[in-house]
Specification:
Layout (H helix, E strand, L loop, with lengths): L7 H17 L5 E5 L5 H9 L4 E6 L4 H11 L4 E6 L12 E7 L7 H14 E11 L1 E2 L7 H13 L6 E2 H10 L2 E9 L3 E8 L6
Parallel strand pairs: 1-2, 1-4, 2-3, 4-5, 6-7
Antiparallel strand pairs: 5-9, 8-9
Helix pairs in contact: 1-2, 2-3, 4-6
């Protein structure tokens, strides 16, 4: 038995995401993870990307599980979680080279998603990278019926939730000096979207 929370999907998607982060975070040193969830991704990625310092974060109620994974890993390059609610959090300006978040945008209200991009824009130094994993709509279209069904399910549980349009995320990004550079398709009809911080707001 273990007291560490475990998500099968998180374990399953770690390998394809890691291959992307090896490229996108190769020049980074300090990474902030927004919404570390169980903590599985943090320790899996920090173990391989040992040039990084991985800072976990989440709402307070998830800290025990994250701390359990961080403690069991005995990794020196992953830190106990910060208390971050994207709607209210204040992160030091230019304090990270990279930000990572997984499966968060579709479970937040759209106002919180917009605020998350503001937080990321503040936290990243110029040329810093934001990698966001999850399902997205592109040009208003779902890439699979399963994602259309998932969106319906989410909105039935809470009308504020739902799979986001990538173009809307690009608009939130642009206001915060972030420009999308790449979009990777990964298994289970998900994506990793990659934005890079420029020196000035994008018009």
């Amino acid at each position: 038995m273990t007291d560490r929370p475990y998500a099968e999907a998180t374990a399953r998607n770690a390998a394809p995401i890691l291959e992307i982060l090896k490229r996108e975070f190769r020049d980074s040193q300090r990474v902030l993870e927004i919404g570390s969830g169980t903590g599985q991704h943090a320790v899996a990625f920090a173990a391989i990307l040992d040039h990084l310092h991985w800072q976990t974060s989440d709402l307070d109620e998830n800290h025990a599980g994250i701390n359990a994974w961080v403690g069991a890993s005995q990794l020196e390059n992953v830190s106990a979680p910060l208390s971050i609610d994207v709607r209210t959090a204040d992160v030091a300006v230019d304090s990270y080279d990279a930000v990572y978040s997984s499966n968060t945008a579709h479970i937040m209200g759209i106002d919180a998603v917009e605020t998350m991009f503001s937080l990321v824009g503040n936290a990243l130094r110029v040329d810093g990278v934001f990698c966001l994993y999850g399902p997205f709509r592109c040009n208003g279209q779902f890439n699979a019926q399963s994602n259309a069904d998932f969106d319906t399910n989410l909105r039935g549980r809470d009308p504020a939730m739902g799979i986001r349009d990538l173009e809307a995320l690009d608009e939130f990004a642009a206001v915060n000096s972030l420009r999308r550079r790449r979009l990777y398709a990964v298994p289970s009809n998900n994506y990793v979207a990659v934005w890079r911080k420029t020196g000035d707001p994008i018009t």
